[in-house]
Amino acid sequence: MKTMNRILNSKWLVSGVSLTLGTGIGAGLVGLKKANESPIRETLSDIYKRIPIIPIPNVDAATDLSKYHTGQVGTARATEIMKYGFPALTHIKNRESYVLSYDPRNRTAHWVIEQLNIPNLTGESDRKCSEFKEDDSVHVYHRATNWDYKGSGFDRGHLAAAANHKWNQKAMDETFYLSNTAPQNPHLNQKAWNGLEKYCRSLTRHYQNVFVCTGPLYLPRTEADGKMYVKYQVIGKNNVAVPTHFFKVVILEKRSGEVELRSYVMPNAPVDENTPLERFLVPVESIERASGLLFVPNIMKRTSSLRAITAGGK
């Protein structure tokens, strides 16, 4: 609740949300801001009651970001991470070095966004000091546990990779929350997916900033009767959903101000690690349609120069 309070209380999110979700949410958030400037007369639950219910909220990119300084923690870091807006706004959790939207039904994240640059990737943090743990900010009915994964045959696959957050041990530790993992085929996790994570880190040598959004997909397939179904396994007593695929949307900032976009999808199955990553490039629209998220509209609010790299592109 404290994390959500900080996010809702930030000036830039008030601006971004009100632009997209209308005056109802705008009034609710402004009400919260005023309540915190004077003796508190309303609780968050009271304010939420005044926010209209809408189907799939889409939040515009931030319009008045506060300056982020290297090594700074807290709201300003989250502000910079979310420079290109929220793909959707549900169950947002703000960590030291990434932001996620949690999916309580499937016991994993809808998406996780992290900002990679050379300072973030550099440090003495050691994953040997970190342990996978339940996310106690999630209601016990809706969280995954280590017991769910035990004997399942699946790895606890990081969405925000631990190696992306060496700058701070606490930041690395927070990547081990089970809310930041999903059941992942061990061969995929340790081979091809790991190769994609390493590639994203390598891009920091050529781009000023690398923003990575990662998440699960549950894609339909045609069965023997000719009809299409969405089917996926669940594991453990908490029925943690096993994604059929995973995606990464990579936003690359050049020093010139130009922005490139690369979008990848891999099946949650063994993948030959020698397969060129270019083979997994897909149009970002296919991820937007499959996931229910939106990326391009938010990005276009921050730049007029967007180049999407697809298979065969340079």
| Major sheet strand order | 1-2-3-6-11-12-13
Structural class: alpha+beta
Q: What kind of sheet is the major sheet?
A: 7 strands, mixed
Q: Return residue spans where pLDDT drops below 50 for at least 5 consecutive residues.
A: 1-68
Record field, number of beta strands: 13
What fraction, in percent, of the residue positions are helical?
25-40%
SSE ordering: HHHHHEEEHHEHEHHEEEEEEEHHE
* Arithmetic mean pLDDT: 81
Backbone shape: globular
For the termini, the CA-CA separation is 44 Å
**What is the number of helical segments per DSSP (H or I, 4+ residues)?**
12
Percent strand equals 15-25%
Over all CA atoms, what is the radius of gyration?
19 Å
